[in-house]
C-alpha cells in the first residue's frame, strides 16, 4: 500500500484516495512535430525497475494533479511535488541519489 502526501492540500492518504495518471514529465508534441516524435509522445512510456516519476490526482480530496517519485520495486515513495514543474525538485533528486548511488535524472531504465 502506497502512502502519498498531496502537495496541494497537505493531506496524507492511501493510494485508494488517489488515481495514477502515468508517467510524469512527458514532452508534449504539437501539430508541427514529425511523425516519429509524435508517435514517441503518444505511445512510448518508460517502465523502469526502480525510481519512477508519475502523475497522480487526489480524487478523494482536493482533486488536483501532482507528481510523485517512487520505487516500482520497493514501493518506497521518495516524495511528491506540484505538477507545474518541468523536472523534479533538486532536493528530491539529491535524496534519491543519496540512497541510490549512480541514479541520474532521466537515466531511469
Ligand atoms: Zn490534495
From TrEMBL:
A GO molecular function assigned to this protein is: sarcosine oxidase activity
Q: Which Pfam families match?
A: SoxD
Q: Name one GO biological process term.
A: tetrahydrofolate metabolic process
The domain of life for this entry's organism is Bacteria
InterPro entries reported in the protein's UniProt record: SoxD, SoxD_sf
Q: Any idea what this protein is called?
A: Sarcosine oxidase subunit delta
In its UniProt entry, the species of origin is given as: Pseudooceanicola antarcticus
In the record, what lineage is assigned to the organism producing the protein? Bacteria, Pseudomonadati, Pseudomonadota, Alphaproteobacteria, Rhodobacterales
Amino acid at each position: 500500500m502506497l502512502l502519498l502526501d498531496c502537495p496541494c492540500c497537505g493531506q496524507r492518504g492511501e493510494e485508494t484516495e488517489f488515481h495514477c495518471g502515468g508517467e510524469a514529465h512527458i514532452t508534449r508534441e504539437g501539430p508541427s512535430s514529425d511523425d516519429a516524435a509524435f508517435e514517441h509522445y503518444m505511445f512510448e512510456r518508460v517502465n523502469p525497475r526502480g525510481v519512477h516519476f508519475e502523475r497522480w490526482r487526489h480524487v478523494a480530496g482536493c482533486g488536483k494533479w501532482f507528481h510523485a517519485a517512487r520505487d516500482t520495486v520497493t514501493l518506497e515513495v521518495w516524495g511528491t511535488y506540484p505538477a507545474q514543474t518541468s523536472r523534479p525538485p533538486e532536493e528530491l533528486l539529491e535524496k534519491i541519489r543519496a540512497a541510490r548511488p549512480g541514479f541520474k535524472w532521466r537515466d531511469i531504465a
